[in-house]
Amino acid sequence: MHNKTLTELAAGLRSKQFSSVELTQTFLQRIRQHQQLNAFITVSEETALQQAQAADAALSSSQGGVLTGIPIAQKDIFCTLGSKTSCGSKMLDNFIAPYDATVVANFNHAGAVMLGKLNMDEFAMGSSNETSFYGPVRNPWDTDCVPGGSSGGSAAAVAARLAPAVTGTDTGGSIRQPAALCGITGLKPTYGRVSRYGMIAYASSLDQGGPMTRSAEDAALLMQVMAGFDAKDSTSVEQPVPDYSASLNDSLQGLKIGLPKEFFTAELDSHIAAAIHAAVAEYQKLGAEVVEVSMPNLQLAIPAYYVIASAECSSNLSRYDGVRFGYRCQNPEDLSDLYTRSRGEAFGSEVKRRILMGTYALSAGYYDAYYLKAQQVRRLISDDFKRALADVDVLMGPVTPSTAFRIGEKTGDPIQMYLEDIYTIAINLAGLPAMSIPAGFVDGKPVGLQVIGNYFSEAKLLNIGHRYQQVTDWHQQVPKGFE
Ligand code: GLN
């Protein structure tokens, strides 16, 4: 059961091959069996089984949609009414959300079953899941290695078949990078396509939720539920939601692919480069044309991002003051002691580093030199994409410079960790959609191909992913021990 696609699971439920309760129990059992991966922060066994019973009742009277009765799991950044929403932090270890995020409400409305909440880097800051208060997640392909981050629990859970499909969020690469390192499919939608209401804010002008699944076909089903206008999110875009599954099989004849030459430099592992070129050649067989493009400002993406994301997070995280919710220190002497000790004791070192960088960049006298400058660079990067995407339909390149690295390998050097996102961050600065799909293995570890499209081209990206997945089987490989 755990190796079936969402479409197969939906068909199985409808034809009564198995019930949602049976399906849910199967995945709960697998989660228990593979606890050593540390993919989940919370497993919601009781409520999951209740939801499954309700789904079975709906299915037996032929009600419900494609996702009715299908178990999924949520990154622990999405607020879930009545259950713990920690965002990977000691600060929110005691936080029971008083409402559902719009994404969560949408899944509930669709009749999906929530298995639990997935481990992640603290407040989504990280590229390896090692900043989580709940400890690192292990990569199912090599349990000594990281799964990527910040949606590391999400990626590991899908790769290890602990959940058929899950959610993630991507501020600078957190859907695509872990998807690549764990050999799954991850889609970061256009900024504003998926509601951020109830999704705990890291850097609000960059954050975007999206699906993490085994295939593009499955991602289309999740996008159908996740996407849409939400009046509760002021940056949500009022745009009709297409039928994401309808165009999956469209022909790729004449598709114009741009390869940004700045993506293929010395930092890129040569075996990954070879895998990307092989994937591009597969697209040529499917009728695509390939041209080289140049995006001269891409190299500025990392410094610009770390100024902007840190500035925004320093503001967003000022709400955690020990007063209204979250962690509070013991016996504060006065208000100032309450603030400083609560924050000092509950935030981890990476979060503190970002808050310090952010408050510095925003402070009087430095604002123009850092924050304003970074915003100007952001515009240059957007313009690079605009120019490139005027001539081609999509851009392709790697997701990560290397495959999954060992746990502990980069924790001592934040700059090395920041460079993990060298190929993903610019896309967030521009607000574009991009997808990572499995495109091979190097030394037994997965490689991801990144496909970047124009604004609101998610249906096209999924089509491009699906056609590739029909002629390759990288996405069907299962890590040893998790078959
Ligand atoms: N690794 C990047 C960071 O630490 C991106 C994280 C994300 O996309 N949430 O900020």
Mean pLDDT: 97
How much helix, percentage-wise, in residues? 25-40%
**What spatial order of strands do you see in the largest sheet?**
4-6-5-10-11-9-7-8
Order of helices and strands: HHEHEHEHEHEEHEHEHHHHEHHEEH
**What is the highest CATH level, the class?**
Alpha Beta
Number of domains: 1
Structural class: alpha/beta
Largest sheet: 8 strands, mixed
Uncertain ranges: none
Protein architecture, described:
This protein is α/β, with parallel strands linked by helices and 483 residues long. 37% of the residues lie in helices and 13% in strands. The chain has helices spanning 6-14, 20-33, 45-60, 102-109, 152-159, 176-182, 216-226, 270-285, 301-316, 335-346, 349-362, 368-391, 414-418, 425-430, 458-471, and strands spanning 40-43, 71-75, 113-118, 165-169, 185-188, 209-213, 256-260, 289-293, 394-398, 434-442, 445-453. The strands form 2 sheets. It has an 8-stranded mixed β-sheet, with helices on both faces. Strands 1-3-2 form a 3-stranded mixed β-sheet. Helix 4 (102-109) links the parallel strand 2 and strand 3 (113-118). The relative contact order is 0.14. The protein binds glutamine. Residues 124-127, 150, 170-174, 202, 309, 421 line the site of glutamine. The site of glutamine has 13 residues, from loops.
Summary of the model, kept short:
It contains 15 helices and eleven strands. By secondary structure, the protein is an alpha/beta fold.
